[in-house]
Amino acid sequence: METHFVPDFLILSVVIGSRAYGLETAVSDVDRRGVFAAPAPLFWRLDKPPTHVEGPAPEQFSWEVERFCALALEANPTVLECLWSPLVEHLTPAGEDLLAIRRAFLSRRARRTFTGYADAQFRRLDPERPKWKQAMHMIRLMLSGLHLAREGEPLVRVEEHRDRLLAVRRGEVPWAEVARWRAELLAGFETLGGTDALPEVPDRQTVDDYLVAVRKASL
Among 97, 118, 124, 184, which is most buried by a count of CB atoms within 10 Å? Predict the structure, then answer.
């Protein structure tokens, strides 16, 4: 079964979701995301290793390192936040090297992906019957993306906004106020113009060198 790739070849495992964001409650799940590095000889076969594995633990999902790097270079918000999660549960030397180059994945494309993901969530919300948990995560994603554009790294822990975000989740904040908060965050992105802290393009050479080193080490 594919689940043997985790934990056999796991190089990084972190907790994401509410517990990483500082938004957990007594009933919050523990959402784990990881990266595994399949041995290079397995790629010589007709049947390739999986690009991702679900499990074996509940709420656990892991990417093969090449797929993870490709998604990070595309500025996938969830993948980028994995690299900055404060809750690291498993780390090997290859995982340490991955975290060491995490800024190589960053580019101004992240502004579009973070706002794009948040906008897609916003469009799915019905103002008459909003799903408040989804509304909270939409705002949190925009907070993370704006911090990334301003400071050069995503905002994972949002304790500063915890009370207000949890009030949104409980449905205690009027929809009009949620929409205003979203508009304020969008205005923050627009104010930045071209002066954000992100490079125009990611450092693909550094990522490529890392992947080659990981493959060679597994021979």
Answer: 118
